[in-house]
Amino acid sequence: MGAERHNWTTQEILEIYNKPLMELLYEAATEHRRFHDPNTVQVSTLLSIKTGGCPEDCGYCPQAARYHTNIENNDLMTVRQVKAQALRAKESGSSRVCMGAAWRNVKDGHEFEQVLEMVRTINKLDMEVCCTLGMLTENQARRLAEAGLYAYNHNLDTSEDYYKDVISTRAFDDRLKTIENVRKSNVTVCSGGIIGMGERLEDRAGMLVALSTLNPQPESVPINALVAVEGTPMEDIDPISIWDMIRMVATTRIVMPKTQVRLSAGRTEMTREGQAMCFFAGANSIFAGDKLLTTPNPDVNEDLDMFEQLGLIPQKPFVKAPQPKTVEANESKLQPIGEKPKWSRPEHKIERNELAKAKSNPGSLS
Q1: What residues are labeled active site?
Q2: What's phi and psi for 152, nearest 5 deg?
Q3: I need a surface site. Which of 34, 142, 163, 221 has the fewest CB within 10 A?
Q4: Is the sign of the CA dihedral 122, 258, 270, 235 positive or negative?
């Protein structure tokens, strides 16, 4: 253990992950206390501002238009609706609102202007604002920063090697490019992934290599457990054990000591004891509310009760980075510049994704 490193190898991370559990927990908890208050947890509310109809083929996602998952598609929410939800989240103890839209990438136009106004509105409530909108350009990232965006989420999902078995409609490098664009805007980065998608331990380590070798490392790393949704290509995958989650959290904490490690999707399958061990291992951020975009999440009152039992305190906003200033739309010096980015569309097909697509749309499998 020592200073933040950016040269971790897959083998080194696997050796950490596979340590005897008590030794792993001790090292992770020790590292956690070097940079964080162990009794403080950052609480975010995830809000789906545009649901369903996504053109991507992510094998885990119920919002992909090509799969039949009974997700109700919704158009982009209004600024007033978002403000009401943000106020409700603030009252329940959240310090951050993360707005997610089921888009492949950000497109300049009326809807993006509406999102920028949502960012301005929430930042003025003295809450951290995070967005996850898909791929975006440097100019779009700078416009979000100017509006007051605190963080941008763009998950790597898994290792570069396993990525091609999960998604075929965009490349791993596009995700890295989006993170690079965000970094140029001074917005903090939130990027993590999902475990339990059928990947090997080497892929879990590979994902942490990709994240930890970024310089600087992401300020926030969500660790999600797959929530298998009927109709998606991964509907039949069994849930991972809590021990996998604990080991992944602990390893992430050791490899990225200054990062806020977010205990994300899959918490409904975890006992309070399991979650407590994750907090001990270095998780210091959660999503609150009864839904994460479209999948279940513990009720906010359950989380408040758990916090009381464990002696945990919600983190106040802007502890890790200062509050951004908001520039009003009529004072903005940044405008759309007519970009037409060529995000990649890999040619390969993923068999289980194609089978799920055919099941939803008979006759589509060729």
Answers
A1: 54, 58, 61, 98, 130, 190, 262
A2: -125, 130
A3: 34
A4: positive
